[in-house]
Amino acid sequence: MRKVSREKTTRIILHLLVWIVILALPVYAAKRYRMGNDFLLTYYTFAAINAIIFYINYLSLVPGLFFKKKKYKYFIAVLALVSGFYFISGFANSQINKMITRDYPEQVDRQRDERQVPRRPPLRPGIIIAVPNARLIGYTSSSLFMIFLSLGLRLFEHQSKIEKIQEEAEKAKLNAELAFLKNQISPHFFFNTLNNIYSLIDRSKEDSKNAVIKLSRLMRYILNESGQENRLLSDEIDFMNNYIDLMKLRIGPKTRLNINLPGECKDLYIPHLLFISLIENAFKYGISVQDESFINISLDCEKNNIRFSCENGLPETSNGIIFESSGIGLENLKKRLSLLYPGRHNLRINKTRDKFEVNLFIQL
Fold it and tell me: What is the CA radius of gyration of the chain?
């Protein structure tokens, strides 16, 4: 509502500025070229008539008939408008002539005498074209100009309004889709983490209790920030570190863990929970109790660019089943990136028999 009101105010101000210029120009011309008051009276009278024609068409006929697909009625109304004001302009012209005759008789006599003075014949023979009704031609051209000008301006504003409505609809659709994708992450994340905690119960009750406490902190962060589209990158890094600390409780001695997340990043903002699905998959499929395994996670931020990489081994116990059963995580990430950073991200996934690697570049 505030945006619409601001646009309406701007439009009114622009109209006022244009008319101020139009009304100020003849005053300057009258002073510079020493024109009489009859010039100003004539100019302002017909400027008022043109303004009335302009705004009747602009405010009433175009939105009331033209935009409602009543084209024949619109053209009839325009013809009636132009014809009606032709007679009004004729009446105004006669009244102005009477005023000039009454107030400036000597000027009228001088003009009459000048018309009676015989003119010198042209030096070369030529063709003289008589204009049957100069006032009719002048009025028709000026009034039709006002009709087409107001119609074109209204069409331009109407098209701009339609484009803004479409843009807002697309934005609402985008936000709804992003909200849906984001809401998918939380239950998926919670379900996977509960499964990890469940696997700890038989091994260590103390670790299980610590895991539940850490999970509650993670879920509190997710719930508290659920209404925000973007978060500080530093906050998301803290969240990822807390999640990795939680996952360390179930890592055996045969798993090598290399984490390189920066302690500080400038005031960069990223979508909430953007990287967590990649880290989840790394811990879900990249660790093994029996076999040698590894997980490498790193993030770099330079100016407005972010580089994130996540690499994990594929032990025999998980080789061949990764992403066949993960479903939501990676597809969700791909859709979010395509909606949030079209043409400004690069997601590369490389899978071999014993390693899975994801590299993500984002230009904020």
Answer: 39
